[in-house]
Design brief:
alpha/beta; five-stranded parallel beta sheet; 8 helices
């Protein structure tokens, strides 16, 4: 796992400390342990977790500067992409939002295990949380991965972003149709 993480991180311009690599190893082990009793991910092999969850999440650093930014991860699930970003950029102020309490419990336990500060785990539906003043227009960035089609994601995520902020949705290489489908939602929501 260490070699995969270090080579992958280097390819996107990141250098991971020994402490960070160990945190990723602990994250992977905890994910496998908890996944045995709750459905968090279909990907559990350590090397696949490193490639398909951790490095995939870290690829966002090529799209934006996360240093000292407030970030909300919508539909965080098992913590992707938010927690890998936090491990790579400790100055990031992170909110993990998920609609399922069992996943939020997992995230809280994981953050405690990894001794992560400046991480808030919130149990709420995005469409409801976005109506609350502490969340609406409150974040420099919103991120999401594997949550919904882009037109729906825009409606769920853009209300959290400050004017001038950024929403990054992780999509596959064949996302042209989805982007075109979302143009109206993006325009109507001021994106």
């Amino acid at each position: 796992m260490e070699d995969i993480l270090r080579r992958g991180a280097k390819a996107i311009g990141l250098s991971l400390t020994a402490e960070t690599v160990e945190a990723f190893r602990a994250y992977s082990a905890f994910l496998r342990e908890k996944n045995a009793v709750m459905n968090l991910t279909a990907i559990t092999d350590e090397e696949d977790v490193a490639r398909l969850h951790f490095l995939d999440s870290l690829a966002l650093v090529t799209a934006a500067d996360f240093k000292e930014k407030s970030v909300i991860d919508i539909g965080s699930g098992a913590g992707f992409p938010g927690l890998p970003l936090k491990l790579a950029e400790p100055s990031l102020r992170l909110t993990l939002l998920d609609a399922q309490q069992k996943r939020v419990g997992f995230l809280q336990e994981l953050c405690g295990l990894l001794k992560l500060g400046d991480v808030r785990c919130v149990h709420a539906r995005a469409e409801e949380a976005a109506l609350n003043p502490p969340f609406r227009d409150a974040f420099d960035m919103a991120v999401s991965r594997a949550v919904a089609r882009l037109n729906v994601l825009c409606e769920l995520c853009l209300p959290f972003v400050k004017p001038g902020g950024v929403f990054i949705s992780m999509k596959g290489v064949s996302s042209d149709d989805e982007i075109k489908e979302a143009e109206n939602a993006i325009k109507r929501l001021g994106g």
